[in-house]
């Protein structure tokens, strides 16, 4: 496979500010809703600032369950607080970008959160991608994480996948 262009989304019963704060907290290592699949470790500059770096570990069988770990680093390229976060994958098993967009709904009482994953596997992940549908696994784990986020903030309707 040459790469992925995936969009996953969730409709959350929470304001964009609440969703934004939960997203940034998770990328700063809170481990409240993306676990057991992904964990995040922020660098010296936080992910909600341009130039911020976050080390991401994808735990293919879950945290502390063994199995391959996919590691990569994202660097924040653009921030519109409460609305948009654009990161580039600059090191590790993926190259490309991810974009999180938040759209207020119902006069700001609900939020549509979408993640676009526009990337390609790099290094040994290119070989792994030949035997495992990494793109499909990505969307599956994003949808699970979004459902967990919905439980955290008050409810969710999750959807998405390949473009």
| CA-CA gap between termini | 15 Å
CATH architecture: 2-Layer Sandwich
Number of separate strands: 8
For this structure, what is the CATH homologous superfamily? Answer: START domain
Element order, helices and strands? EHEEEEEEHHE
Strand content: 35-45%
Question: What structural category arises from helix and sheet content?
Answer: alpha+beta
pLDDT < 50 runs, ≥5 residues: none
| Level-1 CATH class name | Alpha Beta
The percent range for helix content is 10-25%
Largest sheet: 8 strands, antiparallel
- Give the integer mean of the pLDDT values: 93
Q: Give me the number of helical elements.
A: 3
Strands of the largest sheet, in order across it? 2-3-4-5-6-7-1-8
How many domains would you count in the coordinates? 1
Radius of gyration: 15 Å
Inertia-based shape: globular
**CATH topology type:** Alpha-D-Glucose-1,6-Bisphosphate, Chain A, domain 4
Label this structure with key terms.
single chain, 163 residues, alpha+beta, Alpha-D-Glucose-1,6-Bisphosphate, Chain A, domain 4, eight-stranded antiparallel sheet, 3 helices, 8 strands
Folded structure, characterized:
It holds the Pfam family Polyketide_cyc2. InterPro entries: Polyketide_cyclase/dehydratase (IPR019587), START-like_dom_sf (IPR023393). The protein is built from three helices and eight strands; from the N terminus they run E-H-E-E-E-E-E-E-H-H-E. It is α+β, with helices and mostly antiparallel strands and 163 residues long. The chain has an eight-stranded antiparallel sheet. The model has no long low-confidence stretch (mean pLDDT 93).
């Amino acid at each position: 496979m040459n790469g992925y262009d995936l969009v996953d989304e969730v409709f959350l019963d929470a304001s964009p500010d609440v969703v934004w704060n939960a997203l940034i907290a998770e990328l700063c290592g809170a481990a409240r809703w993306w676990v057991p699949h992904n964990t995040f470790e922020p660098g010296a500059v936080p992910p909600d600032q341009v130039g911020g770096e976050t080390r991401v570990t994808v735990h293919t069988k879950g945290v502390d369950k063994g199995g391959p770990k996919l590691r990569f680093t994202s660097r924040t390229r653009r921030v519109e607080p409460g609305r948009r976060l654009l990161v580039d994958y600059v090191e590790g098993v993926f190259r490309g970008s991810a974009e999180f967009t938040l759209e207020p709904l119902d006069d700001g009482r609900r939020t549509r959160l979408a993640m676009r994953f526009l990337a390609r596997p790099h290094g040994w992940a290119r070989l792994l991608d030949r035997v495992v549908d990494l793109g499909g696994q990505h969307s599956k784990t994003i949808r699970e994480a979004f459902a967990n986020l919905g439980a955290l903030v008050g409810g969710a309707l999750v959807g998405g996948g390949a473009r």
